[in-house]
Design brief:
The chain is mostly beta strands and 130 residues long. Helices cover 0% and strands 51% of the residues. The strands form 3 sheets. Strands 2, 4, 5, 6, 9, 12 and 13 form a 7-stranded mixed beta sheet that branches. A 4-stranded antiparallel beta sheet has the order 1-3-8-7, with no helix packed on it. Strands 10-11 form a two-stranded antiparallel sheet. Strand 5 and strand 6 form a beta hairpin.
């Protein structure tokens, strides 16, 4: 059974940093996509960043240059380093896994839509105040 557990959220001031972690267990797929998503109150869940089994990454335009996704396969953990945080980054952050990815269309890519992901963590809250 696959379990994803997020940690590392908190309340910070604008401009500060946080690192989120996603501990994964029971996930034995050799090829996959993993992603970070976020959902603010009253808004749809949106993709933030993705990483595939080969380490290729993708980012939403709103976080490019500020957020970095990474993974430590030895620790079965995925990370999201968030720098220069803004109040608009405030949301519940979720990690998710898609065992069908990555997908191919001239190049390999991971989905940034929630519908493509089968497994989800419970979320960790990030609050950024101005």
């Amino acid at each position: 059974q696959v379990h994803l557990v997020e940690s590392g959220g908190g309340s910070v001031q604008a401009g500060e940093s946080l690192r989120l972690s996603c501990a994964v267990s029971g996930y034995t797929y050799s090829s996959y996509c993993m992603g970070w998503f976020r959902q603010a109150p009253g808004k749809e869940r949106e993709g933030v960043a993705s990483i595939d089994s080969d380490g290729s990454t993708g980012y939403a335009d709103s976080v490019k240059g500020r957020f970095t996704i990474s993974q430590d396969n030895a620790k079965n953990t995925m990370y999201l380093q968030m720098n220069a945080l803004k109040p608009e980054d405030t949301a519940m952050y979720y990690c998710a896994a898609d065992p069908e990815g990555p997908y191919y269309s001239g190049d390999y890519y991971c989905l940034h839509t929630p519908l493509g992901y089968n497994y989800w963590g419970q979320g960790t809250q990030v609050t950024v105040s101005s």
